[in-house]
Hints:
The protein is of the alpha/beta class. The protein has helices spanning about 25-45, 50-60, 80-85, 120-135, 155-165, 175-185, 195-210, 230-240, 350-360, 395-410; strands at about 5, 10, 100-105, 115, 140-145, 170, 190-195, 220-225, 245-250, 255-260, 270, 275-280, 295-300, 310-320, 320, 330, 335, 340-345, 345-350, 365-375, 380-385, 415-420, 435.
Amino acid sequence: MPGLTLKGADLSPRxxxxxxxxxxxxxxxxxxxxxxxxWTLARVYDNVPHYRQxxxxxxxxxxxxxxxxxxxxxxxxxxxxxxANYPFGLMAVPREQLLRVHASSGTTGKPTVVGYSRRDVDxxxxxxxxxLRAAGCRPGMLAQNSYGYGLFTGGLGFHHGAEHLGLTVVxxxxxxxxxxVKLIGDFRPDVIFVTPSYLLAxxxxxxxxxxxxxxxxxxxxxxxxxxxTNAMRDEIENAFDMHAIDNYGLSEVIGPGVSCExxxxxxxxxxxxxxxxxxxxxxxxxxxxxxGETGELVFTSLTKEAxxxxxYRTRDLSRLLPPTARSFRRMDKVxxxxxxxxIVRGVNVFPSQIEEIILADARLAPHFVIELRRTDRLDDVxxxxxxxxxxxxxxxxxxxxxxxxxxxxxxxxxxxxxAVKPGSIERSMGKAKRVVDLRRKL
Length: 442
């Protein structure tokens, strides 16, 4: 792993730059959370009909919030609630007071719409700035923003947060991979904001152009918007000789900036608990699980004005960990989504499990797709994976047998594996689509 002094830049954290709450006692943090939870619950009860009806139906009132543990008495919010109140039904301010609106793509139904007041946009920028500082960024650095702009929260979220910290921003957006590499060479950015899967596509383009990625100016990659493994982190860091920092967020809660790794530890994303209250629940029962147990992440916003969310079920699977670099708790790497998990003949499988096995094989590239098919009423799994450029085609058969055997041994499912030439699998300009379910089409 690269050291904190990298390519001539000292990336060590400067404690004098920390917000006081980042190093406060747990009692101080808990007291602040309780005050902000009371404010948030009262705000939605008074201003959002959906929450008033949901609280009344559950037999709870904001005045019932006496201790932090009382939050579990309140009902969850789900993506279906956002869609049922499309477009502006969950806003706690009049539509005319919204400064900005973002939304999901809506590829699986109605998009989920989120709104921000002027104060929310300022708060969001300050949280992203805190994340960037934790990741080693400093005022004056140059950042290439390769997240998509528009309704997606990634591009504009990182843009304004970087400006708030004092970075110079190059708003490239996603796509145009050849141009991404050219601008990295010409502008010499210190930082890139990018999904990890698209950074791998940029890496491919470096190599296609015969350019050494380790000689680039990049020192830090802010990678997020999709689950990724530590094996992929190693692939990126070793290829570029830079730090790949995990960050987590989702538009329904605020966008990017809910949590971020600290560069001095890189041991899971620190949750900015002064703005977001985390829980982990059993995905099936909704029961709150103790810290350290894996389940579904649930977040309640503490400072959002236009669209607070109460106990929002993210469907992301992780666990809460004790504080290290800051006084806030951390979240472990997201292992997948409860709705991305697929079950094959009784075995629960996450794409991240297969990714780790692929990245452990030096002959295989980190580009893969999992196809789900059905034959004679039984589900079949086909893993299509690219070989690395230096692997001869006559070795593909051995790669296929070895990967299939490893998956059977470590995960417990039988798969067909098809190794393909480099560049055969379509590259993602944003979030990678790892699973293609063809069962519905048969």
